[in-house]
Amino acid sequence: MAQLSSTLLYIAFILYLIGTFFFGGAIRDKKEKPSTNRWSMLGIVITIVGFVSQLGYFITRWIAAGHAPVSNLFEFTTFFGMMLVGAFIIIYFIYKISVLGLFTLPVALLVIAYASMFPREITPLIPALQSDWLHIHVTTAAAGEAILAVSFAAGLIYLIRVVDQSKPSKRTFWLEVIMFCLITTLGFVAVSTAFSLADYEAKFTWVDKNKQQAEVVYDMPALVGPHKGTLEKESADRFEPLVHMPAIINAKKLNTVIWSLIGGTVLYLLLRLVLRKRIAAALQPLVKHVNLDLTDEISYRAVAIGFPVFTLGALIFAMIWAQIAWTRFWGWDPKEVWALITWLFYAAFLHLRLSRGWHGEKSAWLAVIGFAIIMFNLVAVNLVIAGLHSYAGS
Amino acid sequence: MEQVKCECGHVNPHGTVFCESCGKPLEEDTSKKLLDMRYEGSARRSQTYNKTIIDKIWNFFSSVKVGVWLIVITLVASAIGTIFPQEMYIPPNVSPAEYYKDQYGWAGKLYYELGFNNLYGSWWYMLLIASIGVSLVICSLDRVIPLYRALQKQGVTRHPTFLQRQRLFSASQVADENRVFSQMKERLIKRRYHVREENGNILAEKGRFSRWGPYVNHIGLIIFLIGAMLRFVPGMYVDKVLWIREGETKEIPGTGGKYFLKNEKFIFEVYEKGKDNEVFNAAIDRVGNGTVAKTYQTNVVLYKRVGPIVPGEEPKLKKVKEYNIRVNEPLKYDHYALYQVDFKMNEPNKMAFNLIDKATNQSFGTVTVDLHNPQSSYNLGNGYRVELLSYFPDFYFDDDGNPATKSKIPNNPAFVFKMITPDKPKGEVSFVAIRQTIEPFGNNKYKMAFAGLDTRNVSGLTVRRDFTLWILGIGGVIFMIGLIQGMYWNHRRIWLQRVNGEVWLAAHTNKNWFGLKNEMKHIIEGTGLAMPIDQAEVEKKAAQGGDRNGATK
Q: Distance (Å) from the C-alpha of residue A213 to the closest C-alpha of chain B?
């Protein structure tokens, strides 16, 4: 069952990838209207089959484990990717625009690939997670975040279309920053995969902040080593760190971040060399037929639909469960605070839009920032700021 | 109060932008082609008065701009609070000043000095939240009353300029006006529009209730904030800790002596390979067998006191119920909830010693000391007796080198025994701690030899009673209802009017113009009416002078 589950996830991943190309083809096809041509028809069908396959992964894994597979970082992030595809499918049937698929599916692919870099075993539930609220809270929160992420995809399309690429400006710079971040995620996946295929392992003994001897295993060559870290005998032939970090910094994670940035930069520069222009400028022809007002509306509509779902899942259900499991509905745990920050941000977004008339480009930039906050809560709060939710990490 | 009379005869309050009834602009502003339909052009207090100090405060808090700034400042402040752990999450037995400095260096020191270690309880954070609360109330009142009035008073027949200046507008000439009107009326009703007719003109409206969504959700938020504030009212909220050993019966703190709890047994289980579902094996292997917790459970019996509280007398107890408290499964009774939050395994309970002759190892009997309630003397018969002169449950040597105890909990028990035997009737004194015997007065003949330890598990429970929960719950439900009401529906209006031998069609929605345009397409299909033009789009295109990226649609 567990084996079948992994296979289904793999199939879903491949199908999303193929779906992306079909949506790309739909835009290139000049003969017919992009919304109704054969390419986009096939694109959406393949996407739906992929979604069903991933749903199969989810169900079989649930059966195998005996609990909803949303209990660790891999499972949660994969589920988030699945919800993103689900949200896209719904929005697609409302607005019928193929270019949204061309941007949403790659984001979902990145999310799922990123998830796969974390331990993928089925983990048993610790007592705090043994509750029906696990799947109620986590799935609703993930669904809300995924719908909000569609607003990011629409916002990104809007920006690529509207930002003038004929001369460099603040706008072209920040748009490239977004592109670079997305490529860095790919860089992380590429570097992690490469070193894991090479079975790289280096064991260090180091001194932690409580001045205790500890051991750490790096799975990438250590550019930055742990505090007073020395390679153990069995890893003596491994790469010696260039610098050593002070004890309060988690050198292993920093090392991974540095490697991802290196990977991302290399990829980015290669792309720039090949394309001979900014990434966003290279993408611009893909979105030239896009109706800006409609894109703006999709971005806003996604927030309008996602915000209540997010509130319900990430705040209200979260509070109910926290009251049952942790004795209090609110405890200022970093994850809780960042859910509140996300919520406040989108509340500000809606007020700016409804009362102060922030439409179009301003609204698109906000959609991007909102997604950045969601990603920060998903990635950084789990991996960097440890709290009660940190068991959701690795 | 001043009032403004429109040419249609309707009397509007001072400050109205366009007539509530017919929509004719009262303050002529021709610079913009489209009417600003926000709040229906109604007279908002904040836009009308600005004289007294109350006006100024009102105007400050009624501004959405101020509200958004408050949200953004709160957002940034909240984020700062997550840089380092808050004081409630640092170990309890260290001084915060030193902890932040030790762990995070100068940044931690600064963090502590700025008071960010207790950010969410600081006066200025509270003030921010309170300001948001005030802003919610004033913003809502400033808008909802005039908006309600404007929507109630709106007339069916509109001034032609009102129609012309709507975002969606078209004028068409049709052969048979009456047929078109009746056809349109029928279709609008079919699409669940509420249709009003007057002088042969039509106003079709649906989803007006969605306009109240924002105000409903703001009410929910205010109720929630009030609920959160009530926590500070004495008696509304109980939060106590109860450490209870296996076999013990204790009064539940915070219940005023009303309830007692007995701990029958504490159970701690871990996941083990071979015993649990084998799909977990890989994960168990990675972190180590027996390190992942599976169960924390306390089997308890809840008792209620019967009769009055008499000081110094053992309470009479009546059994209420048996329950297994687990994480996620608190024991609930009479608004109280008991949660499993902590535990301590194998706390020393009883310690046994044999009185032996050091030379022959002959034993003269066993002394069992109850570490929570030790006796002062233990008679072993035949003239052998042991006296407990001093007892240190949590023993250490203080700064002067004297034995002392850190707490009353027997974490590291130590004893001073006096061994009285027939041949040493004055007794020998021996200091006994774990793996350590000191003979302060020289070489003893006898010795207290360790003969066994009996341990018990201790369960840590949290006792809660929170009368604010239902208020928070109501606030949350109202908030969700308001949010859904405002977000998942929209308020659409369609005007159909005969003007100078033409049929004028105008439409407005508060959001989702794409949906409205689609609906319009279906409604007018085959009627001969022209599809309304999106004047906002036309205006934007004109302003840009075509498309700046060269792409054309």
A: 17
Residue with the two structure tokens 């001043």: B2
Residue A278 CB-half CA count within 13 A: 21
- Give the start-to-end residue ranges of the domains of chain A: 2-165+277-393, 168-276
B38 and A325 within 8 Å at the Cβ level: the answer is no
Question: Taking CB atoms and an 8 Å cutoff, what residues of chain B touch A341?
Answer: 75, 78-79
DSSP letters for A42-109: HHHHHHHHHHHHHHHHHHHHHHHHSS-S-SSHHHHHHHHHHHHHHHHHHHHHHH--HHHHHHHHHHHH
Rounded to the nearest angstrom, the minimum Cα separation between B210 and chain A is 13
Six-digit token string for B175? 């052969």
Nearest to B78 by CA among B129, B137, B132: B129
Verify whether the Cβ–Cβ distance A327 to B326 is below 8 Å: no
Pairing of strands A243-244, A224-225: parallel
Q: Which residue of B has its CA nearest to A129?
A: B328
**How many CA atoms lie within 13 Å of A364's alpha carbon, on the beta-carbon side?**
24
A121 contacts in B (CB within 8 Å)?
280, 282-283, 286
Q: Report the 10 Å Cβ neighbour count for B380.
A: 18
The residues near B61 (Cβ < 8 Å, ≥ 6 apart) are B67, B131, B134, B135, B138, B139
Q: Are A233 and A253 in contact (CB under 8 A)?
A: no
Beta strands B502-509; B377-381: pairing state: unpaired
Rg value, chain B, Cα: 40
H-helix or E-strand containing A354? helix A334-356
In sequence order, what E strands does B254-330 have?
Answer: 259-270, 293-306, 316-326
Inform me whether the C-beta atom of residue A248 falls under 8 Å from chain B C-beta atoms: yes
d(CA B107, CA A54): 45
Q: Residue B49 and residue B47: Cα distance in Å, rounded? A: 6
Q: Which residue does chain A place closest to B224, by CA atoms?
A: A316
Residues of A within 8 A of B339 (CB-CB) are: 327
The radius of gyration of chain A's CA atoms, rounded to the nearest angstrom, is 22
Q: Is B378 left (phi over 0), alpha (psi -120 to 50) or beta?
A: beta
Element holding A39 (H helix, E strand): helix A38-65
Task: Provide, as residue numbers in chain B, all residues whose Cβ is less than 8 Å from the Cβ of A301.
Answer: 512
pLDDT score recorded for residue B551 = 35
Phi, psi for residue A152 in degrees, rounded to 5: -65, -45
The answer to whether residue B131 scores a pLDDT higher than 80 is yes
Cα A324 from chain centroid (whole Å)? 29
Kindly report the backbone phi and psi dihedral angles of residue A73, in degrees, each rounded to the nearest multiple of 5, phi listed first.
-60, -40
- How close, in Å, is residue A281 to chain B by CA atoms? 11
pLDDT averaged per 10 residues in sequence order, chain A, 394 residues:
90 94 79 67 94 96 92 92 94 88 93 89 90 93 94 94 89 93 90 88 81 83 84 78 79 86 93 91 86 90 94 95 92 91 95 85 94 89 61 40
Residue A371: how many other CB atoms lie within 10 Å: 22
Q: Are strands B249-251 and B259-270 parallel, antiparallel or unpaired?
A: antiparallel
pTM of the model: 0.89
DSSP string, A292-351: HHHHHHHHHHHHHHHHHHHIIIIIIIHHHHHHHHSSSS----HHHHHHHHHHHHHHHHHH
Paired tokens of B441: 């007065």
Report the distance separating Cα A107 and Cα A113, nearest Å: 10
| Interface predicted TM-score of the whole assembly (ipTM), two decimals | 0.89
Q: Do A325 and B327 touch (CB under 8 A)?
A: yes
Q: For residue A297, list chain B residues with Cβ-Cβ distance below 8 A.
A: 512-514
**What is the DSSP-derived secondary structure letter of residue B422?**
T
